[in-house]
Fold this protein.
Amino acid sequence: MPKDNSILPISIEQVSSKFKLPHLSNELLLIESTRTLPIYTEPRRMSLCLYVGVCTSGVVTLTVNGKRRTQSHQQVMLITEESVITDVKFSEDFDGFAFIISYKLLQEILRDVHNMSDLFLLSHNHPVFSLNDSELNAAKHYYRSIHAHISQTGKRYRVEIIRLSLLTMIYDMAGAFDRVIEQPGKNEKQSRAEQLFVEFVQRVEHHFHEERQVQWYAKQMNVTPKYLCEVVTNVSRRTPNEWIDKFVTSEMRNLLRHTNMRMSEIAEVMNFPTQSFFGKYFKENVGVTPSEYRNGIEPKIILYDSTDR
């Protein structure tokens, strides 16, 4: 999907630098009071991060990718990477707190979590959902705990504690996820397109190691490749190939950074015909070679390159 170069980004680095908010490198940013957020007069695009905002009072309305959203008391709002935000309006009594989490950090802390398609589906299809009283209190507790550890810059294992706290919060919020995604009668309310998208993401999650062809997934789902492309792109704003590449490159990054597997072994596990083909695929999709990535070299982020998602 082509991007408009005139749309300025919202990134952890930019926000933390400008507003001096507590943060962990360029991986995690905390906003103690969302009523202090700037009201941009021009559209802004979320850059490689996920916004998780919890409303504790009042109402906020904003337009995300052309759709008007409203968040009120005891609701969570998720805004995914590449989303364009405009027309933000707060009520006078609005307040809340928020996390902005880089997708790099999410990939790292969730690398051992299986069946994460629900989290993808929640953020794309149910970006505003409600918490019950205990879930809201738990979210407040995790925020305070993570905030405290971010402030303790000299503490041993500080980064590890913060990451584990964030992961524990995601697990603890699973009940809210399930209530939204698997509520009784939900399948009847879903459109056929949403059902196909759910099925596609779940199939990719289970088969991306060995299958990377849209045609294969379309055949398994008894639809044409053209129809599958249209449905997935309309529902998620990503093409099927982009979803497949997202899973594949995430797993490659994890194997390179978190295992001692040789390149040839990773190529074999990921079902590439040769190590050379594996290296070419990684370089095209990530921006650096597998060896460079393993040695700690991060790709230069091109904010508006459609392959950088």
About this structure: The first strand starts at residue 8 and ends at 10.
